[in-house]
Write a structure and sequence with these properties.
This protein has 2 helices and 17 strands. The chain is mainly beta. It folds into 2 domains: about 30 residues; about 230 residues, Exo-inulinase, domain 1 (Jelly Rolls), CATH 2.60.120. The strands form 2 sheets. Strands 1, 3, 4, 6, 10, 11, 13, 14, 15 and 17 form a 10-stranded antiparallel beta sheet that branches.
Length: about 260
């Protein structure tokens, strides 16, 4: 009888493991690729000084199946900040991708933009941006690569163009805040994930580790661009666009996927 009990217990454990695995697989099957590896179908570029949809110098392109930011069409950086927007807006979701920096920064690019890009979430639409607007009102998951000086330079930080958030129970108004990630040097691929829960909670995750989290994203009422997006005095941001950033240093993205979550 004891031997039978052990067998039944083992079967029960196996069934539970099987169910858990099936649930995990089911979730994985809900991940949707936002990039087809061939062209920029579903994406709209917006570059400073140009209208939405224009792609000067072919800044955003596909090379060897990778979504690529390249400034090789320019001799000098003259403020051509760019953002590539996905066509849909999202509220509750997980976004994951891999990113790496390649080559050298375009001459004339600002020092802070060296090995610097970003994932913009809860953003405005490209069509609502002014022609000479540098950055969409959004929450930026700032992507940084280490420099040759050897100093710590974490990635998946937070920057807040036209926005504020609540962090550790207090309204956070500083423009940028470093995460707890390590520094990534060279051209290595880095796995970054953002978990967005509407207006409740946002997490930045690097290589499976939560490196930053905050809550209650909201418009900055003193920002002139954000003022145009505020409706009936409500500062709350619960949804928005996703875009990938170009800031004068070439970089590449792959495996760009989203998983829509229940509210």
């Amino acid at each position: 009888m004891k031997r039978v009990c052990i067998g039944l217990t083992g079967l029960a454990v196996a069934l539970l493991v099987g169910v858990a695995a099936a649930e995990d697989k089911g979730e994985d099957e809900q991940w949707v690729s936002l990039f087809n590896g061939k062209d920029l179908t579903g994406w709209t570029p917006k570059v400073t000084g140009y209208e939405a949809g224009e792609n000067p110098g072919d800044i955003f392109r596909v090379e060897d199946g990778l979504l690529t930011v390249s400034y090789d069409g320019f001799d000098k950086f003259e403020g051509q900040f760019g953002h590539l927007f996905y066509k849909d807006t999202f509220s509750h979701y997980r976004l994951r991708l891999e990113v790496r920096f390649v080559g050298e920064q375009l001459a004339g690019g600002p020092g802070w933009a060296n090995r610097n890009s970003g994932i913009m979430v809860h953003g405005q639409t490209p069509q609502s941006m002014a022609k000479n607007q540098n950055f969409p009102v959004s929450l930026e998951v700032q992507l940084l690569g280490g420099k040759s000086d050897g100093k710590d330079r974490p990635t998946a930080n937070l920057c807040t163009p036209g926005t504020h958030v609540v962090m550790n129970g207090k309204l956070h108004k500083a423009h940028c805040k470093n995460s707890a990630s390590k520094t990534y040097h060279g051209q290595q691929w880095v796995k970054v994930e953002v978990e967005v829960r509407g207006n409740d909670l946002i997490k930045h995750i690097v290589d499976g580790e939560v490196v930053m989290q905050y809550a209650k994203p909201q418009y900055d009422p003193k920002d002139k661009t954000a003022q145009k997006l505020i409706k009936d005095g409500d500062l709350t941001i619960s949804e928005g666009t996703i875009s990938l950033q170009a800031e004068s240093h070439n970089c590449q993205f792959r495996n760009v996927e989203v998983l829509v979550l229940d509210e």
